[in-house]
Amino acid sequence: MLNDRGIFDLSLFPRRISINHGMDKHLCFISMNSVRTIISFSTSNFIYADIELILESGPMMLLNVLDMHELVNPASYVHRFIHLRYLAIWKIHRSDQFFRQSSFSKLWNLQILILSFSYNHVFEVPDLIWDLVKLRHIHLLPSALFRCLGSRRLEDSSVLLENLKSLSKPRLHYGDSNWLSKLPELQKLSCIMFTSWDYSLQRYQFPELNLCNQLTSLKVENGAERNERERCKLHLPENLRKLSLSGFILVSDDISEIGKSLPNLEVLKLHNCIENWSVNDEDFPTLKVLKVTGRNWEEWDASEDSFSSLEQLWLKSCYSLKGIPPRFGDIPCLRLISIEYCSSSVYESAREIEKIQIDAQNLELKVILKGQDAYETHFYRQSDHWH
């Protein structure tokens, strides 16, 4: 196509369309045959009505990437994009409409799937997800319930998502998570876990996550209400390097067992899981980063041998903690201590450790103290989420 100067205009044959605030007035004149990527950051309903009209009628058979803030009825046209490799929709109104067999099952080349549903409800991922064998990353918000495979398909060795590397955010129940064995190469998992009563063992049980042998990064939230939480044993894959636990009831023995069962653990995050923690020597010999949020955490007993490889210590919202164990001053590789909105004794102990490290000629230690005045005057309470 020639522009007003008689020159062939490549801008009318774009491979990428990015929409920020409004529809470009020239968009209706460009050739959609050349488009491979469409990304929109706009939140205007009027804009998305125009975009969906183009997606429904335009000849974009070679579209590879579709990243939208919101789509109302993607099931009516998404089946047309059989070459799609990346699909992200950050606001979907109806999960049952999106996961139509006739539309979703044709995305054979899909590798990355990111879906966020507009209402805070749990949606079910149908069995057809297992037919999209090229999937590498699945990210579902706020959370998703994977339909349990029937016993016949569960035993079928050909039913696998063997390319899947990361999965977020399935809801896992004890006795209903055997499908995890169908993800042999899964490396990163973020999930919500629920206990169920095991009548044969006569106790509550969490799902067994050691079915994922290749898992190196795991983030788990306890899905039970706070007043309904039970202390249960966690079954974790031994190759983990990063572990984040939120809302679990853990005593010292539980945490020690976690450390001993995970010989490669380098990063540990605990969010409102402990009240008292006595750490044995060599419980965490490879741990490099420790992050703890604990509103009710009071006592902490540890030596330099408990965390002999520790490089970073992050404490946040530990309102009741009586202090950091003084032997932390003897950890030679410690490089960072970050304290945020904790008790005054935690700030004082951090300063004492800093003095010990300086006396030992460890000048690389950095101590960050945030929110001390706000805590002491009770004028401010920070969110308990790590940023």
UniProtKB/TrEMBL annotation:
InterPro entries attached to this UniProt entry: LRR_dom_sf (IPR032675)
Superkingdom of origin organism: Eukaryota
Stored Gene3D superfamilies: Ribonuclease Inhibitor
Protein name: Uncharacterized protein
Species this chain originates from: Lithospermum erythrorhizon (Purple gromwell)
